[in-house]
Amino acid sequence: xxxxxxxxxxxxxxxxxxxxxxxxxxxxxxxxxxxxxxxxxxxxxxxxxxxxxxxxxxxxxxxxxxxxxxxxxxxxxxxxxxxxxxxxxxxxxxxxxxxxxxxxxxxxxxxxxxxxxxxxxxxxxxxxxxxxxxxxxxxxxxxxxxxxxxxxxxxxxxxxxxxxxxxxxxxxxxxxxxxxxxxxx
Length: 185
Hints:
By secondary structure, the chain is mainly α. The chain has helices at 5-15, 19-39, 43-52, 69-77, 82-90, 102-123, 134-142, 152-156, 165-177, 180-183.
């Protein structure tokens, strides 16, 4: 089954009530779309994986062990492509599922990167995503007490895609800046 972006966004909004979590899904979608263009991959598929990756987050909030498994199962039942389902399933470290595709590696690394970029934008003097540059985000990355929830080891897994950290952060920032109005930043 092909799912449109609008259908996917409706699905996200039907399953996620918290506005900040919806924005997180949009941010990951933005980064994934930018990475897809960089790697000359299917931007729609990569975008869907980012948009839908936390579809079960509120449902599994009390059981981290089930997060991403239930979401992947839902997406599989809806007939989404296997590579999207795999990327969603593998983005949660709790399951120790090998990330065997470029899409899965990208989703895994992009998830925490969005949190770091949002936090950097919020402490930037302009509080405007479009005023933030790669160097500003990298400086925040080095501050281990800053945005502690943004797992630096996971972000650094961008090396599995043969991307240097600076390049990955730059691409992620570009992807989020492209949708800054939708993110409210």
